[in-house]
Structures are given as structure tokens and as C-alpha cells.
């Protein structure tokens, strides 16, 4: 069996992938450009990837392909309809990043809430010492205790972020298509308009693409923190930039 891994470098080199060699003839590429994809996968029986796109046009040229292994949770980079119609199995790794993504989300929220970037620059530049003032309170920052943390997408990641938010003293307000018992849920407009911190944890699909559009972005409080921990395309990034 011929196995091809297309973007090894995206996985980190602390990950041991030597088991693949026991499964067949394995070829590993650190990265694969779009124009290189067809040549590298057209004769493969199995393909491992993380970020490389496999469109229907590319897959149509892969006569031997039986299995695509997505080394991530999201698989919007693969033409699933084509795979379904042509008997190509696709597997992913659901839940593998729940702890790490929730941790990073909370770290970003704390960094922004505490204005750590500005204060670090103030001390690293020597301006703090030169000021002769023992305390600096500008830019103004606020405690998260008592604030509302809105979570758009209350799944494995969103629920972990909610646990951390509650531990910090936040009220958690969640948007989930199927409300969860014991969790204060609301429609997306309410979550966006009422929250002081908003974190987004949605898969990218036809239903979620651009779900946070210009109109909904206009509902967000002017001083709110917005963190998109999912695919960029769930939000209108130009509208976000304009709002900022």
C-alpha cells in the first residue's frame, strides 16, 4: 500500500509517526503546495494531511485512493461529497484539541483583558523605570469577575472554556443549536450583544460560514473582547477589521 503524508511540518516534530512505516510504503513531505498536490497523491492508496486542500478535481485523478486521514478535527479542506460518491473513506481526530484550544482561548482572553501586551512593552522599553511612578493604570483594564462571557458553539471546546470562565467569576451565556440543560443559552444575537468577552468555537460548514456577519458584528459592545478560535470564515473578517 502506498501512503503519502502531505504536510508533516504542520503536525510538530515531537509527534512520532513511525508506525506508518509498518502499514506500507510511506512517503512524507514537510509541505505541499497546491500545484504539487495532484502529482503527489494521484497514485496513493492512503493520504494523511492536515491543511492541504483535496478538491473534487484533485480527487478525480486519484484512481487508487481508498482512505484520507485528516490529522485534525475539521475536514472542510476535503470534498466530502466526492468521497462519499466514490467510496473513499475519510477519518478525522475529533476532540484531540479540546484542552489545548480552550487553554489558548482563555490565555488570549486574559492577555487582552489585562492589556498584557501594552504593559509588557511599557516595562521592556524602560519607560516604566523612567516614569518614576510606581503604578500605571493606563490603558485601563478590568477584572473579568462579574463580566459576561459569551460562547458561540458549546461543544467539547466551548464547554471547557465555559468551565474556566465560571472559575474566573464570569456569567456564561451560550449559543448552541440544541440548548444544553443547566447552561444559560440564548440566540446568537443575544449572546453577541450582551457579552463582554465572546469566544467562537464552531466547525466550518454551509450553516456556519459567515454566521457572524456585518449586521451581527454591529451588535457587539464597543469594548468587548472577540476571540475566534474556529475557522476564520465563520466570521466576516473585513467587517471585524472595520469594527476594530
Please characterize this protein's 3D structure:
With about 240 residues, this protein is of the alpha/beta class. The chain is built from ten helices and nine strands. It has helices spanning about 35-40, 55-60, 80-85, 100-115, 115-125, 125-130, 155-165, 190-195, 215, 235-244; strands spanning about 1-5, 25-30, 45-50, 65-70, 90, 150, 170-175, 195-200, 225-230. A five-stranded parallel sheet has the order 2-1-3-4-5. Strands 7-6-8-9 form a four-stranded parallel sheet, sandwiched between helices. Helix 3 (about 80-85) links the parallel strand 4 and strand 5. Helix 4 crosses helix 7. The longest helix has 16 residues, at about 100-115.
Layout of SSEs?
Layout: E1 2-5, E2 25-28, H1 37-41, E3 46-49, H2 56-59, E4 67-70, H3 80-85, E5 89-91, H4 98-113, H5 116-124, H6 127-131, E6 148-152, H7 156-167, E7 171-175, H8 188-194, E8 197-200, H9 214-217, E9 225-228, H10 237-243
Parallel strand pairs: 1-2, 1-3, 3-4, 4-5, 6-7, 6-8, 8-9
Which stretches of 5+ consecutive residues score pLDDT under 50? none
By DSSP (H or I, 4+ residues per run), the number of helices equals 10
Instruction: Tell me the structural class.
Output: alpha/beta
Work out the number of β strands: 9
N/C terminus separation: 51 Å
Oligomer: single chain
H/E topology pattern: EEHEHEHEHHHEHEHEHEH
Can you summarize the main beta sheet?
5 strands, parallel
The average pLDDT score comes to 94
**Overall 3D geometry?**
globular
Approximately how much helix is present in the residues? 25-40%
Strand content: 15-25%
Sheet with most strands: strand arrangement: 2-1-3-4-5
Q: What is the CA-based Rg, rounded?
A: 22 Å
